Amino acid sequence: MGFFDKLKKITASLFGGFSEADEAFFEELEETLILADLGMTTSVEAVEQLRKRVREQHLKEQEEVRGALRDILVGMLDVGDTGLHVETRPSVVIFIGVNGVGKTTTIGKLGHQYRDAGKSVLFCAADTFRAAAGDQLEIWAQRAGCPIVRQAEGTDPGAVLFDALQAAKARGVDVLLCDTAGRLHNKTNLMNELGKLSKIIDREAPDADRETLLVLDATTGQNGLNQARVFRDTAGLTGIVLTKLDGTAKGGIAIAIARELGVPVKLVGLGEGIDDLRPFDARAYVEAII
Fold this sequence. Notes:
Elements: H1 12-16, H2 23-57, H3 62-77, E1 91-96, H4 103-116, E2 121-125, H5 133-144, E3 148-149, H6 157-171, E4 175-179, H7 187-204, E5 210-217, H8 222-235, E6 239-243, H9 253-261, E7 265-269, E8 277-279, H10 282-289
Parallel strand pairs: 1-4, 1-5, 2-3, 2-4, 5-6, 6-7
Antiparallel strand pairs: 7-8
Helix pairs in contact: 2-3, 2-9, 3-9, 3-10, 4-5, 6-7, 8-9
């Protein structure tokens, strides 16, 4: 079974009853895409592109129309490199996002993958505001077989990151994976904290490859898109991690994020298992939902 086989076919009923690509079909397709979390803007644009292709290429058969829709959605997802750049020693990957989206589990899974690939990995527990955040990351560090740098709850996150960067450089670590707080008492404080962590990396590891990954719970739909806008404008995102796609997620949010924010989805999670995290493959993803 493929990794994306758990995703729902969002257009199954629409194409199941397909007779021709007439105006009624396009209207129903637009409504279907909106309900599948592509959002109004992206859905309207996708349907307009499909209308044009059907007209210009004289598409009549179900599979021709379906194939054209697939190609359009794959194109919408093509907004940048979906790979993680971790070639320097150390490289730094910072995980940001609100509480409960799966940052800690994503770090554990990715650390496990890097270790299996022969890289040395260090975890940094810079979420010092949430009770038990460090304990949870330590459990994942043990599962993944990775060392961790952490301090007491309430410690300045910048101090934890500083120590982790020094340890990574001293030990010749390949990849430093850093957890961060998902919520302070207001949004401004949270964004200021993330900005401070970024400056510490600039100062202590200026030549390091760096990824800033926003972790989003795919089941939150358009709320996730709104979160992404806020973080993109303040934290300098390099990519998105979509989690919980095996639940009630409708799948379209990946396309909405890519199209409306211009930020590539780089990783996806479809379960709680340590191996349930994979690189994002746009064509395989679209094949699964169309």
